[in-house]
Each structure stands twice: as C-alpha cells, then as structure tokens.
Amino acid sequence: MCGIVGYIGKRNATPIIIEGIKRLEYRGYDSSGIAILNDEKELKIFKESGKIIELERALPSPEQTFGNVGIAHTRWATHGEPNTINAHPHTGCKGKIAVVHNGIIENHMNLRNKLESEGHKFKSDTDSEVLAHLIEHFLKIENNLKIAVQDALKLVEGTFGIAVISQENPDSIIAARKGSPLILGIGEDEFFVTSDVTAIIIHTKKVIYLEDDEIVTINHESYQITNLQNEDIEADISIVDWDVSSIDKGEYKHFMLKEIFEQPTSIYNAFRGRLYGRLSTVKLGGLNMTGEELRRVKRLQIIACGTSWHAALIGKHIIENLARIPVEVEYASEYRYRNPIIPEDTIVFAISQSGETADTLAGLREAQAKGARVLGITNTIGSTIARESDGGTYIHAGVEIGVASTKAFTSQVTILTLLAVLLGRMKDLQPTFGKSFIRELELIPKKIEVILQKSNEIRKIAKTIKNFPNALYLGRGVNYPVALEGALKLKEISYIHAEGYPAAEMKHGPIALIDENMPVIAIAPDDEIYEKIISNLEEVKARNGRIISIATEGDERIKQISESVIYVPKTIRTLQPLLTVIPLQLLAYHVADLRGLDVDQPRNLAKSVTVE
Ligand code: AGP
C-alpha cells in the first residue's frame, strides 16, 4: 500500500524520486518523505503529512536538496497516525542512516523494548522505525551497511520491502524484500529501486524482481544480489512489456475514466490468443495443467477480496452453469482463518488484480500448506501471488491506477468465462455453444464501445442521484454480483452508502428502506428471469422508489416503471456482466466527479492492500 522509490546515478535524485512516488500516490497517500545524500555526503531528510504536493511545497531550494543518491516513500498509515514524525524515512539515534519500509514488523514491540533498554531513543509510533535503530545497532558492531541490514533482517518477523542509505556508506543503496514487492531497475549508468515498476518505467524497462529474503546492494556502477546469509544470487533481468503511455491520464480527467474507456481493449487483450476456434473451446496454457488433469477436477474454490471477489462470484455462476463443477467462493481473509476443508481433486484459484493483497496471499499459502494446487489470476507480472501460485493466468488489463478497480474486474470476468468454457467443453458443453461463445465474446469490445458513448447521458442520470445519502442495487443470477460491484464502486468513490441485493431478496427486509429518497439501480437485461425482476421492480415502484434500470436495447416496457433507463446491447447470458457493469462504473464515476471528490484517490483507500 505504501510506495518506495530509490535512485543512484549521475542525475539529481530528488526530482526523480519525487516524480516516482507521485506515480505511486495511488497506492497510499497520507504522508511522504525523502532522504538524499548530498555532494558533501550529508544525509538530508524531508517529510510531510498529506499528499506529495505538500512535501514538494515544503522542500527548500533545489541546491539544498541536490544529491545523486536518494530514497523516497509514500505512506498509508498502519501503526501510528499519518503525521510528519511517523512519515518515512526513519533514522536511528544518530541520524546517519535512513530507512523506508513497506509491510509490517510484527515483533516490533519486542525489538523496540530491547533497543530502548540499550539506550536507543525512538521518535515515532511506527513499527518501521525499529528497522532504522536495529541497522544502526549492527552498524556499530560491523561497520558494513549490507551486513548490518542482513543481521537486522534476520531478527525481524513480518513483511518488508525496504531501502536504506547511510551517510557513512554514501555511494550505495541497500534494498531487501520479504512478502512485500521490491524491484531493481537497471538504467544507463544509473539504478532504481521501487515497490512498483510504474514509478520507474519512464526511466527504464529493464528490471529484476527480487525474491523474498534477497538483498540488493547498488552502487554507482553495479549491483549485487545476495540472500540474508550473504550468498550471491543470480537473478534474471525482465523487460516490462507495457507502454509508458498507460501511466498518463491522456485526454481524460481521471485515471478511472480512462480505465473505464480502455475496456474494449483490455477485454480483447484478456481473450486474445486464447480462443481455439477449430475445437470451439479456449486455451489457458499458464494453468500448467494437462487436459487429463483438468478433466479430473471435481471442485473449485476461489479466494479473493473486494472487486476481485465479485468477479469470483460471477465466475462461480458461469462455471457451475457451463462446466457443472461446484465452485465455492470465499473472502480470502475468512478462508485463511477457518481451517478450510479442501477435498481431493479441488483446485484453488486466488484472484487479485495487484497480486499483492495480503489476505489473498495468506489464503493461497494456507491452501498450499494443505497440499492443494493453487492457480493465480492476476494482472501484475512478477507479483507475489503470480510467483507463489502453481500456475495461472495473467489478465493483461494493463496497469490500473484508479483505486476503484474497473478494467481489471472485466478482464478477471473474461478469464473466468474462458475457464468455464474450457472446463465445460471437457464435459458436456456442446461445440455449438463453444462456437457461439467465441463469436459473442469477440463482439463484446464493440458492444462496450456503444455503452461508453452513453457517458454523457449517464452523467445526466448521475445528477439526479448525486445528493441522496443511500442507493440500492438489485440484480439476479449472474447480475447479482454485478449489483454488488456497482454498489461497491459508488461507495468507494462517492462515499454514498450503497448496498447490492439479489432483487427477490429485497422483499425480505430491504424493502423497508424504499421511498422516494431511495434510488434503486436495477440490472434487468432481457433474459429468462426478466419477468421475475420486473415483478421485483413493480414492488419498488409501488413504494415510490426511483428506479434507474440497466436494460437490453429495445426493451420499451421497462420505461414504464423506470425514472431512467440505460440500454446495453444484447448478448448471451454468460457474457452479460461484461456489459451490464459498464453503466454502473460510469454512474459511480460521474456521481463522484459531480460531488467534486478525488475520484482516483478516494479517502482511506489504497490500491493494493498489503496488510491483513
Ligand atoms: C476495488 O475497487 C477495490 N479498491 C478493492 O476492493 C480491491 O478489489 C481489493 O482490495 C482486492 O484487490 P486485488 O484485486 O488487488 O487483490
């Protein structure tokens, strides 16, 4: 959730690392700070609470912040309130080393008590500060920064991605990871460290994803990777394959809007090369499973959080329908702690856009500890979930910067539909279905373009509900999780309380809430349960509820009970969520924008939740 950027090279580090943490601001943003080693080899630290712009405003003249070595951090508070003292970098007692840290030091109280008893004076309420004092402690013994970091990390329980610089070793950065991502960027005569390639992609696409318990020592000419025992590690260099333009808003006011509009392409990229027309099925090579192994699968369990959990619920519906394989979907945070039963021939899927969500990762590890095969569905190449899974599929949505997930959701759903068809075709699903599925899926990007053209129309509808404090989203079948997702989008970015319900369940309680002040957003495409949902909506109408319907083009009847209707093109039921969710994303976006809120960086939220 926090972000780390470090630079060592010939250029001035300050603008590079400030720009870098700005690129990461979407991950966590309650305070920030930098540490620079200047030409006199003095360590200078600048920290500020609030957004990075506050830090920039507080910086003295460029001459005073000049230096070729620097580290920066943007924080999302876990231990200690988001004030300047708790902001990173942290220093030891002497102020000669600076540490930035992502993750949680679980045994920080023990370590702190011990260090305090030896005379160390702590300044902040954070768990991270203990790292600075611990490294300082070992530096006194060894006077070698790398060895001191290694010794300190051997005592630490928890997770970390760290970068350390020191006045006494002024020509190097030491960085290490365990359970929190850290990447080395290799430029021309310069190096970077970061928790997210987004921060450095404008400088280099050559990267090394560090593994757990690895430490990299970077100086001006070279780098060396070792483990905590100081043994050398050979690491592969990867080339980041996405485009620099994806980290700019371009013509759009917000990243979220840009990402909503990218969905025709991102969905296409999710299925591109994976449709197998000749056999009317699909290919998902990354699963690392033979046809025979897949045929033996008797049950799926899917773990995920938030929006990814909603995608999983859609997946359950479609996989059970097409492949007739039971699918359990569970919040990863619950799964992990309830000693889950994983019967034989069960495959566990972990779905995560970021690939770093701590709860999902913990669930994945728990399933693996029980001997299950775990497959990942993630967007982030080289992420921890991608690396720890036994196989899986990248959704190829491209970098998603808006905190509210949009294009990653539709790409996850696309992958789950492919999985359903793959498993289904191995069982009873007819080739004719496979053929029509492929044909319909290929039409989805064009159909989404049609919906996106209604953005202004949806903005007008957003004006009619923007001042209500509550909203209810109703859907049935495969569109019930779409209702949940629509409600989550509205809550996250507009701070309007919203709930998603299966439409028929409304009469068992929530109907008590219905009156003229309760907007009801109903997902009612033209399918086998259309009549049922219309009856549910009549119940709303009878109580003066204001209905906004998402309906299939050509449905005139629904106009009679709706205050507004947003039409989506017709498709097969399996693919409906890919269309019906688009107006809900746009509606949430426009409501939040009309309320003047920070759409891309909503309060209290972080893009990647790396704490449990
Ligand atoms: C989505 O809009 C949310 N910001 C959040 O619910 C998110 O989906 C959740 O934290 C899971 O993230 P992941 O997909 O990266 O694991």
Radius of gyration: 26 Å
Main sheet specs: 8 strands, antiparallel
Low-pLDDT windows of residues? none
Helix-strand category: alpha/beta
The total count of helices amounts to 18
Strand arrangement, major sheet: 3-2-4-1-10-9-11-14
Overall morphology: globular
Strand content: 15-25%
Mean of all residue-level pLDDT scores: 93
* Ligands and ions found: 2-deoxy-2-amino glucitol-6-phosphate
Number of beta-strand segments: 26
Distance between the termini: 11 Å
Structure overview:
The chain is an alpha/beta fold and 612 residues long. 35% of the residues lie in helices and 23% in strands. The protein has an eight-stranded antiparallel beta sheet, covered by helices on one side. Strands 5-6-7-8-12-13 form a six-stranded antiparallel beta sheet, with helices on one face. Strands 18-17-19-20-21 form a five-stranded parallel beta sheet, sandwiched between helices. Helix 4 crosses helix 5 and helix 14 runs parallel beside helix 18. The longest helix is centred in the last third of the chain and has 22 residues. It is globular, with a radius of gyration of 26 Å. It starts with a strand and ends in an 18-residue tail after the last helix.
